[in-house]
Structure formats: C-alpha cells, structure tokens
Amino acid sequence: VQLQASGGGLVQAGESLRLSCAASGRAVRNYNVGWFRQAPGKEREFVAVSRRNGGSTAYSDSVKGRFTISRDNARNTADLQMNSLKPEDTAVYYCALGQAIHSAVYDPAMYNWWGQGTQVTVSS
Predict the structure, then answer these.
(1) How far, in Å, are 77, 79, 80 from residue 5 at the CA level?
(2) Which pLDDT score is estimated for 55?
(3) Which of 1, 22, 41, 63 is the most buried (most CB within 10 A)?
(4) pLDDT for res 2
C-alpha cells in the first residue's frame, strides 16, 4: 500500500491550503481515512477522519469549523481543505488508512498505513 500526501506549503495566517492523499494498493472505500499532524517536539495528533461505511466525519476541536475532510472513492483519494489557517496549524501533515471503530479512529496507533507527510507552515 502506498499513500502519497501532497499540497503542503508556506502560507500566511488566514489563508487556505488543500491537502490531497492518493492511495494505491488498497481501496479507500474500505477504510477510515485519517489526517494527523505532528509539530516539532510534539506527539502526532488527530486532525480529522472520514469513516468507512458511509464516510461520516469527525474533527479535533482545534480545527472544527475550519477544516473539511472529503474522500473520492472513485479516484481513491482523500482531501483535507484547510481554511483560516493559524500559525499553530504549522506541522507535518500525514494521511493514513485504518479500520478501527468508535473512538479508536482518533488514535494514530490504530492506523495501518501512512503517507510520507507534507509540511504546512503558517506565518503570522
């Protein structure tokens, strides 16, 4: 399985970025697609998830209302639209596939496959 994350970059506070995750070797329709991020010196943290079997979504409190996760099962991709970016959103962003249920979807340890990460830097 390969996950290719892209779309990161350097933006100013208040601007937007759209991250994309392209999967090969697995059909994303069968998996939860999660986005996580890791800032320097911090642990990897949950950002958003699109659950399998209907694709319901959930977000961390820090991004709720600003970020939107979506998936395109036909293209085998998942995107993270990030609006109103803040300096504290600066991190490496990772997409991942997993099959956990309930609150386990928030735990990075419950994901089986990871992309390589894409850097997002938000300047103030």
Answers:
(1) 10, 9, 10
(2) 72
(3) 63
(4) 94
Q: Specify the residue for token string 């994901």.
A: 111
Confidence of residue 54 (pLDDT cuts 50, 70, 90): confident
Residue corresponding to tokens 């249920």: 101
- Give, in order, the Cα–Cα distances in Å from 77 to each of 29, 84, 116: 9, 23, 15
DSSP the chain: -EEEEE--EEEETT--EEEEEEEESS-GGGSEEEEEEE-TTS--EEEEEE-TTT--EEE-TTTTTTEEEEEETTTTEEEEEE-S--GGG-EEEEEEEE---GGGGG-GGGEEEE---EEEEEE-
